[in-house]
Amino acid sequence: MARFPFSAIVGQDEMKQALLIAAVDPSIGGVMVFGDRGTGKSTAARALAGLLPPIMAAGGCPYGCSKDDQARYPDVCGRGKMIKRPVPFVDMPLGATEDRVLGSLDLERALRSGEKAFEPGLLAKAHRGFLYIDEINLLEDHLVDLLLDVAASGENVVEREGLSVRHPAKFVLIGSGNPEEGELRPQLLDRFGLSVEVRTPKDIDTRIAIMKRVAENEADPEGFAARWAGEDEAILRRVARGKARLPKLVPDEEMLRDAAHLCLAVGADGLRGELTLMRAARALAALEGAKKITRKHLIAIAPSALRHRLRRDVLDETGSTVRITRAIAELFG
Amino acid sequence: MMPVEAAAADPLEDAVLAARLFVLAPATFKGLVLRGPGPTREALVAAITEAVPLRRLPGHVDDERLLGGIDLAASLSAGKPVPRIGLIEEARGGALIAGMAERMDRGVAGRLAQALDEGGTALVLLDDAAAPDEAPPASLAERLAFSCDLAASRRWQGVTLAPCGGSLVAVGQLEDADLRALAATAEVLGVESLRALAFTAEAARGLAALAGRKTVDKADLAGAVRLVLAPRATRLPPQEPSEAPPEEPPPSPPEMSPEEQSDSDRQQPEPDLSEILVAAAKAAIPPGLLESLAQGKAPRRASSSGTGQKRKAATRGKPLGARAGMPRGGAKLALIDSLRAAVPWQAVRRCENGANAASPSAGPIIMRKEDLRIRRFEERAARVTIFAVDASGSAAAARLAEAKGAVELMLAQAYVTRSEVALVAFRGTGAELLLPPTRSLTRARRTLAELPGGGGTPLALGLNAAREVAEAVIARGRSAALVILTDGRANIAADGSPGRAQAAADAETAAKAIAARGIEALVVDISARPGPEGAALAKVLGGRFLALPRADARMLSAAINAVQPLGKAA
After folding, report:
1. pTM
2. Class assignment of domain A6-52+87-198?
3. What would the pLDDT profile of B207-228 be if each residue is shown by its tens digit?
């Protein structure tokens, strides 16, 4: 079944922005999407897969190694010729076992030839791409810990079943979940770069537009995808340009100061807030093709970058987003 | 044919209609949830099977069987890998049917949800839930178009699905006005999910197809709303002010019997389309839901199945599968898993030992330490703290806010330590479980904010309700502790009648029952002038007593924690 085109998703601008920023700068550290069921979380995340510029990877390598990876992990890479291939997108189901995620002993080869070989898991498949987990808040804790750990280090180290393997696993983690069904521990939440809140559009016209697109897609998936291919192509080019522009953008003193002030004002714990804020603003500027990172970019991205890092004051009914916008208004007018 | 009248008939009729739609286009409607075991459901399932092959999905199915992989047993006997396709793949083109769906493993549900999203898979869930907090996984129920409750049905003979005249493809798309009416109806019923809305539109087209028409008419729309939106309703349609029953003037959610509703509907002169649709939905909202909605305590499962309550599949006390480890410190050896871990290595190990790898079945199995697997069960440390909050006039007036605050603070802490919190409130003449054991701060906060105060003190009822929750928790292999926030001045007896003496006696009986079950309890008196009643209650409960006349929420939470550390392994 053809994927629902990214550009055909109605509304949900914050989520789309966050996903594109993560595509431009994977070092941002993942995106967490909170929202009710049936708001298009999964659709948007899965659609993202279709519109990323292809990468050059070693052919026949189960990890899709780049040239750098080949040099750094000479013993795991298949060392094939470099070929173009799409950015991997791995959809991890809730019930995935540790074996499936990390990789394990290759049963087939062990049975056939009595050979001790490593069968790469989902983490290997997701290298240089995206790992999407729906309902991440229901995932077993030890698995979430493990995923975030690998996502942060960019490397998967397997020491089990007599295997000892180290392979690259750099990916953007995209999680989604409904906070009403259980929360993610704050320690884990903090490690996501961006977090967005998705709400069902309440506006009747928007809902009608969505129903129409869904019906069109249902009736003729291929035709629908073809109709939106142009728009998706435009986004793909924007992401590619943003990626190229990213290293040229250097945050200036003033901008760093703004970021620090804002984090202090809202009381975001730790330094991750500032760093993410800075990176996200840079990625947004790159995505928009701006020459310089401005305060406008910072403000646009601040809610996504900070809302999950505020210390929770359960007696304060105001939501995190409100607190951030208030702080922005006070600081920057 | 007026849809309102049709819905008054046996619930089977709607279920048959839903089944016919499903059979018409399994890939579009994805499937249905059938609640209520009995001959009716069996007959219906049999009828569906004639049109769409149903493949049974056992509850204990493992990943390998579900997704396919290497058939270990066959591979071992053949000496070479034998692939096997999974159930999801096998059922492609037909549908999977899962019995006792309310007990389905969350992992299995996750896999199925993914398969449903990919397309090509359809699912029939049989929901036998008895307890109110059991329901099929919401992630699946949300992805299936229909949900039918057959528990009240009395018919089972002659259940057949009439063959359909048309096909879904032949029916044109909906007009803008129709879409608008559907969206408005969903809004009125509090159905937020866009998936549900899309299903409704498709169902309307499906109904037209069943009738052999090329365009969708009003009856199709009404039928689709009844089949798809009504079971998912999270609030009652607002009531026209002119029709308000005279005895119920307050602005609280309207309370109307179905008769009154259809009366008021008939009095409408020329209702517009969305009103017709709302009326159709109203008649089809499940009766239990209608009651709880009318009492204003909408379960607010935003867009989950509509018939069930909170899903709790993960903490059902099931074994969790095995992990590598040594069988010591109470951990049990998982023999089969250990053997399974060792088997693939036999050839390698024989080679290492210098034997011939070509004869893998020769000699004993070579086990090593790293093969050992231990059984894991549901974390027994999971602890549920049940708050029984006295929201009566005497205790609450000024102190309810602090009590609420303390519960929230403890919950915030609880979700860091992975323990859970439940909330029972008692006031007036009743006690209710406001919050089943949960870790969700979002839910708890909303429930607490909505908690009203005032009225008498039905302490006995409150204690009984708290005990029932505690017993349910213990039955699932977790430990429970009670924190009772009250002044202990009971004045409503267990049967709801006023009278201080009877009330005190009943409260003592209830407290003794708690003590007899050995449930840990803590009584906190937060009233401005603590009296002897609280301490007396604590004594009967065999628990501790705290008098905190001037504590704010933070102090309260700190004090409760000092006495009874939350989240400590039991």
Report:
1. 0.66
2. alpha beta
3. 998 888 888 888 888 889 988 9
Of all residues in chain A, the one with the smallest CA distance to B302 is A36
Q: What is the DSSP string of B155-208?
A: --TT---PPPSS-GGGSPPPPHHHHHHHHHHHHHHT---HHHHHHHHHHHHHHH
Tokens of B439: 């870790």
* ipTM for the whole predicted complex goes beyond 0.85: no
- A245 to chain B, minimum CA–CA distance in Å? 35
Candidate from A95, A179, A186 with C-beta closest to B108: A95
The domains of chain B, with CATH numbers, are 3-232 (3.40.50.300), 321-377 (no CATH), 383-563 (3.40.50.410)
Q: Is A160 assigned a catalytic role?
A: no
Rg (CA), chain A: 21
Strands (E), B471-565: 479-485, 520-525, 544-547
Report whether A270 contacts A190 (CB < 8 A): yes
| Beta strands at B520-525 and B479-485: parallel, antiparallel or unpaired | parallel
Which is the CATH superfamily of the domain at A247-332? Magnesium chelatase subunit I, C-Terminal domain (1.10.8.80)
Nearest CA in chain A to B81: A108
Q: How many other C-beta atoms lie within 10 A of the C-beta of residue A172?
A: 25
- What is the three-class DSSP state of A328? helix
Q: Phi first, then psi: give them for residue A232, nearest 5 degrees.
A: -65, -40
Domain-wise residue ranges, chain A: 6-52+87-198, 247-332
pLDDT digits (tens, 9 = 90+) for A153-186: 888 888 776 678 888 888 888 988 877 776 677 7
Q: Which residues neighbour A24 within 8 Å (Cβ) at sequence distance 6 or greater?
A: A239, A242, A243, A246, A283, A286, A287
User: Residue B335 gets which letter from DSSP?
Assistant: H
Distance (Å) from the C-alpha of residue B150 to the closest C-alpha of chain A?
25
Residue of A136, A160, A183, A307 to mutate, testing the B interface (most B Cβ within 10 Å of its Cβ): A183
For the record, the structure tokens of B95 come out as 């549908």
Q: Which two tokens stand for residue A7?
A: 């550009």
